[in-house]
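pasting for the record
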Amino acid sequence: MNDQCHEHELDRPGARRARSRWWAVGLAGMTGLALTTSLGIGGAPAFGAVDGFLTAADDRRGKPDRASTDSKDYEGKGKKDKRKGTPVPCSADALITAITLGNARGGAVLDLAKDCTYLLTANIDGAGLPAITTPITLNGGKDTSITRAAAAEQFRILTVDTGGDLTLNKLKISGGQTPETGGGIHVTDGGRLTTRHSAITRNIANANGGGIYSAGVLVVERTTVSRNTANNSSGGGIYNSGGQLTIVKSLIKANSANSSGGVISNGSSAVVTIKGSVIADNSALGTVGGLLVINDGVGRVYDTKFTGNSAGLFGAIYIDGQLTLQNFELTNNTASSGFAGGLYVGADSTATASKGIIKNNVSLIDNGGGVYVASRSQLVMYDTKVIGNQAEQGGGIYNSFDSTLTLFNAKVVRNTAVTNGGGIFNAGGTVNLNTATGTTVVKNRPNNCVNVPGCPG
């Protein structure tokens, strides 16, 4: 019985892709970089929608991370509880019973107790709660959390099976630990998970997806995903395996993994859409601190800031497929031992970046401080500023052979290279500056461009 609750295939430039090998293991030999950059969202474009939520710093027992001040609309101080589901007393056994009955009856809306930690102690087929097989809604309240007891054997908190449709409202999910995928929550192909005004924090998986692993449909809305870990694997925060992932007005912060510390979306059928969010201070020992899209995946990022992410290779974003960036910021991200502190456009990939800022990103010992465009790829940038980035070559942008870089009304300013190409280094590809549209490349050190027609050296 459970105890009662407590109240209160990564491209090397110039090489062909080998996608099936690299991403699962990362580059274990790379040296990770300690996270020192704190999150600051005041200068981000169009971030009013996310200014209300807090980070996951408040991890006191029974105190869930609040994803948004909009949660006041759900249950404000002094307001009558307007929830209309079935009340579940503050007891882990009561919650298990309620979910079991909900599954048997074809679905349920369950209102969990306020000021309650449902403390799970029993392993039920790899999770602390029964697998979700029908539409189930779990409504939390003030300081409601579900967590694994520290002394219990390892298990994740929740599994959503095929046919299951789980919605979490105002809940904190923490303490899950599993040798398998999905330290906090695992969503099977054919399952669906929606989180709102919730926190997924301090969960651990020894396989992919420290916080959440999903092969189905996953919607993360006004939610904090923080301090989760994928040991020796990928997707510290979220792992999307061939499914549909949508992140809206959420914070993905301080997660860690061997590869892709924040979010990974893997597969030609995988689509990740991120809107109005912050991806901050995530780390990977090997590859990609922030967002990794691989194996011909599709990424769409709007009104979102990536800051303080770090990895051995590729600090903020790696795209192997198709990427759209609009109204974005890539700031203070670091590749400690390889390419691309900010954005890496992988071989045979396409990316469009508009109305963005790529600033103060660093490739400590290699090329492409702000942006690296790999061979046979295309990057088009509109109305975007590349400022203050640093690298060995191509402090602002490094463009590889057989790749095409096209700029419209872009500013490449005050970037620094240790050896050459402070602004843009072109290594045999094509660079179209389109200066008539307002593109300028100035005040870079030790020079503005290398092998770029129409650019002053």
